[in-house]
Amino acid sequence: MQGAFQEVGARFGFSEVEASYYPFKEFKTTWQRIGPRASFKVTDYLQGAEPRVMEDFAACLFTRVQRHRRELYTPVVTEYLRSEEFLRLNQRKYIDRSRNLALSPMGEVYDLRVLLNSLRRKGLVEDGEGTYLSWTDKPNRFRMGYCSTLMKVVAISSALDSKMVPDFAAEYVLYHEMLHLITRSDSLRSYHDAEFKRLERRYPRWREAENWLKQVSRGSVA
Ligand SMILES: [Zn+2]
Predict the structure, then answer these.
(1) Among 45, 47, 189, 199, which is most exposed with the fewest C-beta within 10 angstroms?
(2) Domain boundary among 45, 71, 94
């Protein structure tokens, strides 16, 4: 990997390049640059990537370093990040690094797998195979759900796993997170554009569900 970075770096005019893997929880890479020297801490989720993927990834990073702007990944990189192979190598690792998960879709009241099936029956989610579903270990009232589209992990706040909360409220949050997976917009970046909202409102009881979520976040539902 260091070799790939040095070779690509030379093309961008860098004479000294260091690169090593680093176990960030999220998929990220950091760097320091002083003149023609650069050192990178590269997400270790790329450890199993083929050389051509690493070369493209490195080129993308050097472009960012030089131009101070985000560069879109090349098709080779994107294809790898969306592959079964990438998930097989990394999903478990990501889950192990996620400290806020109950590590189970089976809650005290609701089973997220049952809710996902209900979304399938409604025709709102087509497959969702390979998605890792879990309740959070602590009931977060302010963040009802989150997902990693890259790792296909969806977590729903256990604040919704309560007899006091109707199943459709939890199902609606699950639908919201599954939509991030389907549209490949990451909830970490809170990507909720008009198209996203339009899809979200295909959920039959969205208005009622949102009212419930407001009540849960106010703490008026125990
Ligand atoms: Zn969202």
Answers:
(1) 189
(2) 94
Residue-level pLDDT at 186: 66
Cα 73 to ligand 1 centroid, rounded to whole Å: 23
User: What is the total count of domains within the chain?
Assistant: 2
Kind of pairing between the strands at 37-43 and 145-148: unpaired
Instruction: List, for residues 30-79, the tens digit of each pLDDT value.
Output: 999 999 999 999 999 999 999 999 999 999 999 998 886 777 889 999 99
Domain of 127, CATH number, reads 3.30.2010.10
pLDDT value at position 193?
87
Around ion ligand 1, residues with a beta carbon closer than 5 Å are: 187
Q: Does residue 28 sit in the same domain as residue 109?
A: no
What distance in Å separates the CA atoms of residue 109 and residue 92, rounded to the nearest whole number? 26
Based on the fold, state whether residues 32 and 115 are members of the same structural domain: no
Q: How far is the CA of 182 from the centre of ligand 1 (A)?
A: 12
How far does the centroid of ligand 1 lie from the alpha carbon of residue 102, in Å?
Answer: 20
3-state secondary structure of 4: helix
**Statement to judge: residues 90 and 108 lie in one domain:** no
Cβ distance 21 to 42 under 8 Å?
yes
Length of the chain counted residue by residue: 222
Q: Calculate how far, in angstroms, residue 191's C-alpha sits from the geometric centre of ligand 1.
A: 6
CATH code of the domain in which 46 resides = 3.30.2010
Asked whether 136 and 101 are in contact (CB, 8 A), the reply is: yes
Percent of the chain past pLDDT 90, that is, above it, reads 83
Summarize the confidence of residues 148-159 as an average pLDDT.
Answer: 96
